[in-house]
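[job 4471] stage=fold_predict status=RUNNING
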Amino acid sequence: MGNFEQKVCLITGAATIGLAIAEKFIQQGAHVVVGSLSLGSEKDLKAIYEDQFDFIKTDITKDLELAKLLDFTINKHGRVNVLVSNAAAYADDGAATTRETWLNTLNVNVVSAAIFGEMLRPYLKESGGNIINIGSISGVFPHIQRWSYPVSKAALLHLTKTQALEYAADKIRVNMIRLGHIWSLPFEGLTKNDRNHANKVTSPFNLMERVADPAEVANVVAFVASDEASYMTGSETVVDGGYSALGPEQHEPLFPKLAK
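[job 4471] inference complete, writing structure tokens
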């Protein structure tokens, strides 16, 4: 029997990572509802898993559409056990980022996670549920020529800890999964779907010397969302292949260079 037998998981964002998380939950017995502007996958989860999966077209920056997504879930299943705030806006022109892009990025990546989490709060309190926010190494380490996306992920990290603090009174756990280089829509688009090239370019920046499969993220999300992680809240679980451990000296020792 799966860890999520008869549980209901709500996920925002239907890109590669979001659907991998959805499929992992389903395989462990959950009913999953995904809210996103589009269902960007060649894999028809509805056809495969039938009543265990639903997709609701949702603009998460509109409170009315978030309310409709929640209403659909409650009307069909009567409860919510897990919220995964996975949706993200990636548009970023570094220092030249326009005010419109700044505001949209923060709205999608931070504000919507805060608003939807609060909407779900009474239902998560009732179910003893939890929230997982999908973060990024960009929210901890500055990245040259990228401003709005990293700043939004830094804000999401602080939101995660704030939610954990506030929601502890309701016995709702809130955690972040901080991601490194994952094979996902941005990587597919930038490399023209060349995964070998993605591995080559990213290999100096992580200890695994490759990008991760979305399923590798989903495995960790499922654990942190499960009852097995019952003492985890306000935490960051890092899935970055050792990016954070590598440091600016990377793979080359400094002292031999100094001795030359």
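[job 4471] summary: The two ends are 60 Å apart (CA to CA).
[job 4471] exit 0
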